[in-house]
Amino acid sequence: MPEIIVKYEDKIVERFITEKKRITIGRTPDNDIVLDNRGVSRRHAIIEFGDNSAVLIDNESLNGTFVNARKVTEEVLKDNDIITIAKYSLIFHNETRKDNELFGGLDGTMVLETKKQKELIAKDKLSKKLTSESGCSMLLGEHEAEKEMFPLAHSVVTIGRSKAANIRAKGVFLSSVQAKIVKDGSDFWLVNLGRKGKTKVNGEEIDRHLLRNDDLIQVGKTVFRYLENRP
């Protein structure tokens, strides 16, 4: 069964598990997932479940619905996608997790003017502008990178210490070719090729990872931000 982990400002407030084919998300108590904040519309969004899919639909909300830091109207959800509504983060899982690590028109909705909301909107506009201009997904150099932008215009892009790598990265004991980004249809996968622990996504060591918009990729000491090109 699918599950959704609801977090408010990084604190887990609910673990929602459902067998329903359609759930509603909003501020009022008649919703399946209730987000008690004036930045949330009464009926903010819905999720419709098929046999092998889940589709998030924004219900013309005032402040918008974001998936992986990108504003959406309708989005097919993938495992571990992060839905942002006002100050809430909803982490979507295709299947219920068995571990216990998780727990240790204006309808009265206020226009959300928080710093976080402004940053999300600004970041979304910038990422759409950059990927539209380049015509492909890309990496932004965030720290210790040789350039500001690295278009992912080929099916395989290598990252490492060597001049032979497509993208240079810095770091002690970093392999000549430490990682590669592989295009698979419309998706991009980050694959570790070199020393273990030298390739991370959002602070976590990876061997193979499906990239999502706004993921932070660290190879050695060099940090990149992944921007997904969307139609």
Question: How would you sum up this structure, described in words?
Answer:
It is a single chain. The protein has 231 residues and is mainly β. 9% of the residues lie in helices and 41% in strands. The protein has one helix at 115-134, and strands at 3-8, 11-17, 22-26, 33-34, 45-49, 54-58, 65-67, 70-72, 74-76, 82-85, 88-93, 138-143, 149-151, 156-160, 167-168, 179-184, 187-192, 199-201, 204-205, 208-210, 216-219, 222-227. The strands form 4 sheets. Strands 2-1-11-10-7-8 form a 6-stranded antiparallel sheet. A hairpin with a 2-residue loop joins β7 and β8. 31% of the residues are buried.
List key phrases describing it.
231 residues, mainly beta, six-stranded antiparallel sheet
Write the SSE topology.
Elements: E1 3-8, E2 11-17, E3 22-26, E4 33-34, E5 45-49, E6 54-58, E7 65-67, E8 70-72, E9 74-76, E10 82-85, E11 88-93, H1 115-134, E12 138-143, E13 149-151, E14 156-160, E15 167-168, E16 179-184, E17 187-192, E18 199-201, E19 204-205, E20 208-210, E21 216-219, E22 222-227
Parallel strand pairs: 3-4, 14-15
Antiparallel strand pairs: 1-2, 1-11, 3-5, 5-6, 6-9, 7-8, 7-10, 10-11, 12-13, 12-22, 14-16, 16-17, 17-20, 18-19, 18-21, 21-22
Could you provide a short overview of the structure?
The protein is mainly beta and 231 residues long. It contains one helix and 22 strands. The radius of gyration is 19 Å and the shape is elongated.
